[in-house]
Design brief:
By secondary structure, the chain is α/β, with parallel strands linked by helices. The chain contains twelve helices and nine strands. Helix content is about 40%, strand content about 15%. A nine-stranded mixed beta sheet has the order 6-5-4-3-2-1-7-8-9.
């Protein structure tokens, strides 16, 4: 246990406040969460064509793979049967590197998934690809755009090209409008020196522009002493890696903390209600995140 974690655990005020908060919020999350995850995230590929300085993809040790089509279909079918309304086809990779992406989107929409979303870096979004995504029925395209200038963007997101990404987003919106599609196009930024300048690039083009805070990818840097909270991801989302392993959350980029596996013998529902998930939620309810390596110093486990 590092010094900051020890100090926090020994501070009576932090310790008491954390226990009260975790017990209260965790209890509410228990009561409102059903026996099937509200959001299922399927990592159809963990390959990426960028080497962003704010992302640890370059440190990933697991094999680069694409999800098997039969596994994908089985998971979507289970989501439909369970009444799951939202599926994300991304996790720790660039979804447009999956050559079957449009077919996967169309399958999910045809089967009855209400909302299908992808989170992309925008670099591979050619007009032809944009049209196929629209025709497949994609509901939300969210793109990362960091930096206020060409120089800043390309320093943060090598080897992506600033003007290419911006133009790709503009063309997607134009095609969306021409097709009268209901696709929502959102931009997310978590690293920029000038928020106003960043927004001016696309604010009047896209449907939403949001700024978030950089997180520390499950504890890669030390969090200053604060009150703990239970991470809602454990009650809200279910993350399936491309090989079928179920990761702790989307920040577990290397699959270090696996909560199960979905295959011919194990379903989403079984893993979601299984002992590993129950134990991890209990630890968060009891403010014992320090016992979980990925949660101990994760910014998502603190106020």
């Amino acid at each position: 246990m590092d010094e900051d974690t020890r100090t926090m655990s020994m501070n009576p005020l932090y310790e008491l406040s954390s226990k009260i908060c975790c017990r209260t919020v965790g209890g509410v999350l228990d009561r409102v969460t059903g026996d099937f995850p509200p959001i299922v995230r399927l990592e159809t590929t963990n390959a990426c064509n960028a080497r962003c300085i704010i992302c640890p993809h370059r440190d990933m040790r697991r094999a680069t793979v694409t999800m098997q089509e039969d596994l994908y279909a089985r998971l979507i079918d289970e989501c439909v049967a369970a009444g799951c309304r939202e599926v994300h086809l991304h996790n720790f990779g660039e979804p447009l590197l999956d050559k079957h992406l449009e077919d996967r989107i169309a399958y999910a929409k045809t089967k009855g998934i209400r909302r299908v979303k992808i989170f992309s870096n925008g670099s591979l979004l050619t007009p032809a690809r944009s049209q196929r995504l629209i025709e497949a029925g994609l509901d939300e395209y969210k793109v990362s755009l960091d930096g206020a200038t060409e120089e800043e963007f390309e320093r943060i997101r090598p080897p992506l090209k600033f003007h290419t990404v911006v133009q790709n987003i503009v063309e997607l919106v134009n095609l969306r409008d021409a097709s009268r599609s209901k696709l929502k196009v959102h931009v997310a930024c978590c690293s920029t020196t000038d928020k106003e300048a960043t927004m001016q690039l696309l604010e009047r083009v896209v449907d939403r522009f949001a700024f978030g805070k950089l997180h520390n990818w499950g504890g890669q840097s030390v969090v200053t002493k604060r009150v703990r909270k239970p991470c809602s991801r454990l009650w809200r989302t279910f993350t399936v890696l491309a090989n079928g392993d179920v990761a702790l959350c989307c920040l577990d980029y290397d699959g270090q903390q696996l909560l199960g596996r979905v295959d011919d013998m194990h379903s989403i529902r079984a893993v979601w209600n299984g002992p590993a998930y129950r134990q991890i939620r209990r630890s968060h309810r009891e403010a014992r995140q320090g016992e979980i390596p990925l949660c101990a110093q994760c910014t998502k486990s603190f106020f």
